[in-house]
TrEMBL record:
PANTHER family: AMINOPEPTIDASE, XAA-PRO AMINOPEPTIDASE P-RELATED. Pfam families: Peptidase_M24. It comes from the Bacteria. It comes from Candidatus Nomurabacteria bacterium RIFCSPHIGHO2_01_FULL_42_15. Residues 21-229 form the Peptidase M24 domain. Signal peptide: none annotated. This is Peptidase M24 domain-containing protein.
Amino acid sequence: MKKTKLIHEVRAVKSKKELANIVKAQRISEKVLQKTIEKLRDGVTELEIANFIKKTHLRHGVNVLSFPPIVSFGKNTANIHHNPGKTKLKKFTRRGGADIIMFDFGCTINHYCSDMTRTYFWGKPTAKQKKVYQVVLEAQNRALAKLSKGEKKAKVVDRVARSFLAKKFKNNFKHGLGHGVGTVIHEWPNFKPKSEDIIPVGCVMTIEPGIYLKGFGGVRIEDMVLITKNGYKNLTNFPKNLNSAIL
């Protein structure tokens, strides 16, 4: 006897056409991110960069974003859903080290969303800044490695990243590891500690671990992946190693 599927389960599995829209949206946002990095300078504000992101998407023919762009500088990067404001980018900070920069944005093509987060250092990062970055990247890589082995239980994938982060920064990772992406930016299924979701082949998920230290700053790295029968395919094509994060 076949199980009756709910509408969110049906919508989670993407057709070739749906997937093509998501990938196109992602490629456009990657071009925008590259232009945005080139736009950075001492004294520029979060709000100026957020507006630049919007205008640059428009130049690529995109007039609907997945959500309002998250642009945060310095200690504001510790705020998971920071609203861009008047904070200015500074090469040298009072506490030493680099100003941390976080970008989280995406756009839509034919109503289908993309989503990506990258974190950067404006200047030479301190040892602690480097450590936080490398820990977050390793957490993401561990989750991806679990997916590559065919794991489909959402809470198991979440646990791999969450337990690693907890060993380095206790009780700091306060959100889910990722979510489905489609015509809305947060779709079923979800990578969460208590999730009973089984990730279906053909759905698009985000993998976005993060560390957020109040008064210091935060790091989040987010990719979108297509879940395949025996693993995954990364749909994000933008550098994320530590060297590429130092501007």
